[in-house]
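Dear support,

I submitted the protein below through the web form. The confirmation email said the job was done, but the results page showed an empty box. After a refresh the structure appeared. I'm attaching both so you can tell me whether what I see now is the final result or a partial one.
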Amino acid sequence: MKMDSFVNRLKRFIFFKGRLNLSLRLFSLLFLSLLSLPINAGLSLVLVHGYLSDGSAWRPIGIVNTLQQAGWTDAGHLFPNSQIPNLAVPSPTEHYVYTVTLPSEAPIPMQAQWLDFYLRNVQKRHPNNSLILVGHSAGGVVARLVMVASGIPIKGLVTIATPHLGTDKAEWGSLLSNSPFSWVAPFFGLDTINRSRGLYRDLMREHPSNLLFWLNRQPHPNAFYVSIVRVGFDEWVPSYSQDLNDVPALHGFATTITTVGTHSLHPTDGHLLVSLLEREKCRMKSEKCQ
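What the results page shows now:
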């Protein structure tokens, strides 16, 4: 009997020890996995240009430089068929800014495919970062279409002088591209009118059969939305069309900031972006921002 009792106690001890070792192993794995989690997830900012422009538009006027002075690392420029550039110096803050070049005369969905490709590459490079898009003019529509249709998680969108509700200038462009003038346009250096037919259709003032009407009524992802609206001197896009709060799907969910200026990008846009992004960085750190 004593021997049987001893054997039973020994079995219980071995069983308990095995359970203890298993628990310790599981705890060790959990601890190591917690150590491997990102401590300082950052932000990847992608600047999207507008019609008849390219990614370099953000640089000569000092917007990228202003962001650099505020602690953002210039991660380079992405263009069709390019390799994602190597970073010379990793950012200590994990905040990176990219410029991209899109086929700006192409229809909005085609440009969105290119932007989707760029964003997925940026995402692979900075998997712990949140994506924020800034779009100027038609680039803002391209960025918003990607947010709605791609499924890529995007934390926020800032648009500058973007024709969210369309522009009559696109209707004039479409009219010219479908008139006899299109035959002689190349002789005057205006062949862009012919190459941009699809884009003009996409940017016409919204009506039930065009892209903007559809896009403006689609559910938009949960993100922050800011529209920088030009007042006074924008000859290409009326102010009301630039306001994201006038988009049916975003009514009441966007922040609107008005600035006096022409349709083009301005150096002051850089300072405004820095201010907006600082608020977002503070919010991410759960700090109180004034």
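Response: this is the final, complete result; the empty box was a page-load delay. The first strand starts at residue 43 and ends at 48.
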